[in-house]
Amino acid sequence: MNDITNTALGGDSLPVSRKRKISDAFSSSQSVPQQQQQPPSLVKQQKLDNSKSDLKNMRDRRQQLEAVLKEKQTAKDSLRKLQSELWSIRTDIPELELKLEKLMDEHRAIERGYKLKQGDLDLLSSKRDKQIHELQLGFELFQKEDEVKLNQEVERLADKFFNEAQQKEEQRRKRNKQERENLESQLAELNKKKKAIEQSFEDQISNLKREGEIKIENMKSDYHLKKQAIRLQIENTKAEIGITHDRMKDAELTISKNNDKIEKLSNEFKIAKANSGEFEEKTKSLRLEVSSLIQFSADRSKEYEQLREKSQKFVDDTKALREKLLEEETARRKLHNKLQEIKGNIRVFCRIKPELETNSFPHKITSLLETTDGKEHLSISEVPNTDQRQLQFNSNKSNIKRFNFGFDKIFDMESSNAEIFEEISQLVQSALDGYNVCIFTYGQTGSGKTYTMSNPNDGMIPRSVKLIFNRIEQLREMYWEFKVEGQFLEIYNENINDLMTESYLKNLDKIKHQIKHNEIEQTTTITDLTTIPLSNAEEVSSILETANRNRMTASTNSNNRSSRSHSVFIISLKAYNSQTGESTTGKLNLIDLAGSERISQSLVTGDRLRETQNINKSLSSLGDVIISLGNKKSQHIPYRNSKLTYLLQYSLGGNSKTLMFVNVSPNVKHFNESLNSLRFATKVNNTHIGQATKN
Ligand SMILES: Nc1ncnc2c1ncn2[C@@H]1O[C@H](COP(=O)(O)OP(=O)(O)OP(=O)(O)O)[C@@H](O)[C@H]1O
């Protein structure tokens, strides 16, 4: 504290006596009045307090003074700096003044030059204005003269051009008229020719078709005869080879026996020789015997060689015959598929269910020979409203409406599944040859679809499978090996259910099986669907049993589910020929469609309504797809409109063969439904799909 006081009062440089004086002076200047009569201790205390406050004041003052001193120092520094700057400016001033003078001179010279140039410019501008004025006057004069001349020329040229144009137009009109007349007569001529060509073309086509069919039939029977002859030849060859083998064995045995005999005789001969005199005669005879035996042995060897050559020839012949058979099989495939193409890649057959009741509607089937369009015809007649029970068999009566339909084939009530399969078998062969085939049964509930398709004894499914395995057996002789797989599914309410799984009921309508297409390979797979490898025809009955059992269990009294869903049996056929290296993949789809009856949607509600809507949608989508496929102008085929058509995308259309059965009941109460079915089938039958190609 003393140090601070000292510093504030000028530091240690001040003598102590002076310090005290200053301190006294400060304390005397304070306003504290002197107490005259106060005791000395109190006075002392007061003095001490005064001194303290003085000291504090002095310290503040000292701080103020120090700040002032600092400011003064800063001011001094800046003053010094300014003075030095001022000095340097002052030294620059004369030089700058000289520079300014020089610049002023230059400026004055430029100003003078500018004034001179301005004068020249004014002169030039007045000259230019004068020249422009003169030119304008000259141009106006020239323009007036030229305009008159130009107008006259334009008028003359316009007249000339108009006349020429008129003449040309006249000539052109005449020429056009002439040309049009010529073209019209040519067109009439061409139309005539076209009609004649069309007629002859149609004649040729039907002739070719007929000839083709006859040829194919001939070739078929030829082929069968040849095949039988070849088979017989092979059998004979085999028998001959057997005989030859036996004879060869006999010969070998004889040779070895003879060799033993020769050995024995040689030994005897040696003994005999030793006793030569005695046995000379014997020797001679033995020699003769030996030489004859040697000759016999040589003959046998020769015979053996000949037999061996013959046997080799038989083997070669058999091989050649097999190859010929393979060639014939390839030719047969081509012809078979050509025949299918001629018949059309989409065909419709009609089947009429037998009816035990008497009130069936009258229908009539005319034979193929009576038609000119290559179709078989059927006509059904409306029953008069007055008494539906009263049948009108005479359909020529004027009050009875008659409806005619033509299909590729009509099977009447007496037709059996065996007869029907006769036709189908050709399509099964196509599937084996590597084509995709679809066979549908279409019709109202109870019209015989399931009976046709999957009757366990003789329906199309068991018969197809039987035929497939018979053919596979035959084709094996021609180096073909097959891998056969089966899948069985149903589509109910646009949802796929696996008919082959034991958990069918558990999974029903719950598992969402997805349809996946491979656009490059043009193949379709369905996720999580059971695939059954098939190795013989007998397996199919257990497949049908499982599927039927599953479908039956899902049906209830109120809903016959199996009639309200589509069932699809898919047989995949992969084949490989080890001789030719050829491989094929075919697919046979056998589809029993849901009942097509048009239940009025206003009569059903809830689940039944949804069911009906889904059936109608998928059946009409199927019709739309087939019709679009036949319409060459169609860019878009609406496969995606229903699960069924999406599933069959690669089995309908270009790369496939389709057959639709329209099943109808002859019962009068089903007249309207039968009419609807026949109409739908007619639409499908009028479709012509392009040529199928093998997979
Ligand atoms: N051609 C036929 N010969 C003998 N009976 C037949 C024939 N067609 C069908 N039936 C019999 O008629 C009945 C109905 O036939 P089916 O079940 O095949 O009809 P559907 O059209 O399949 O019916 P849904 O749509 O209900 O399945 C069955 O009892 C069947 O045995």
UniProtKB/TrEMBL annotation:
<feature type="region of interest" description="Disordered">
    <location>
        <begin position="1"/>
        <end position="58"/>
    </location>
</feature>
<dbReference type="InterPro" id="IPR036961">
    <property type="entry name" value="Kinesin_motor_dom_sf"/>
</dbReference>
<dbReference type="GO" id="GO:0007018">
    <property type="term" value="P:microtubule-based movement"/>
</dbReference>
<dbReference type="GO" id="GO:0003777">
    <property type="term" value="F:microtubule motor activity"/>
</dbReference>
<dbReference type="GO" id="GO:0005524">
    <property type="term" value="F:ATP binding"/>
</dbReference>
<dbReference type="Pfam" id="PF00225">
    <property type="entry name" value="Kinesin"/>
</dbReference>
<feature type="compositionally biased region" description="Basic and acidic residues">
    <location>
        <begin position="46"/>
        <end position="58"/>
    </location>
</feature>
<comment type="similarity">
    <text>Belongs to the TRAFAC class myosin-kinesin ATPase superfamily. Kinesin family. KIN-14 subfamily.</text>
</comment>
<feature type="compositionally biased region" description="Low complexity">
    <location>
        <begin position="27"/>
        <end position="45"/>
    </location>
</feature>
<keyword id="KW-0547">Nucleotide-binding</keyword>
<keyword id="KW-0067">ATP-binding</keyword>
<feature type="binding site">
    <location>
        <begin position="443"/>
        <end position="450"/>
    </location>
    <ligand>
        <name>ATP</name>
    </ligand>
</feature>
<dbReference type="GO" id="GO:0008017">
    <property type="term" value="F:microtubule binding"/>
</dbReference>
<keyword id="KW-0175">Coiled coil</keyword>
<keyword id="KW-0505">Motor protein</keyword>
<feature type="coiled-coil region">
    <location>
        <begin position="248"/>
        <end position="324"/>
    </location>
</feature>
<dbReference type="InterPro" id="IPR019821">
    <property type="entry name" value="Kinesin_motor_CS"/>
</dbReference>
<feature type="coiled-coil region">
    <location>
        <begin position="151"/>
        <end position="211"/>
    </location>
</feature>
<protein>
    <recommendedName>
        <fullName>Kinesin-like protein</fullName>
    </recommendedName>
</protein>
<keyword id="KW-0493">Microtubule</keyword>
<dbReference type="InterPro" id="IPR027640">
    <property type="entry name" value="Kinesin-like_fam"/>
</dbReference>
<feature type="domain" description="Kinesin motor">
    <location>
        <begin position="345"/>
        <end position="687"/>
    </location>
</feature>
<dbReference type="InterPro" id="IPR001752">
    <property type="entry name" value="Kinesin_motor_dom"/>
</dbReference>
<dbReference type="InterPro" id="IPR027417">
    <property type="entry name" value="P-loop_NTPase"/>
</dbReference>
<dbReference type="GO" id="GO:0005874">
    <property type="term" value="C:microtubule"/>
</dbReference>
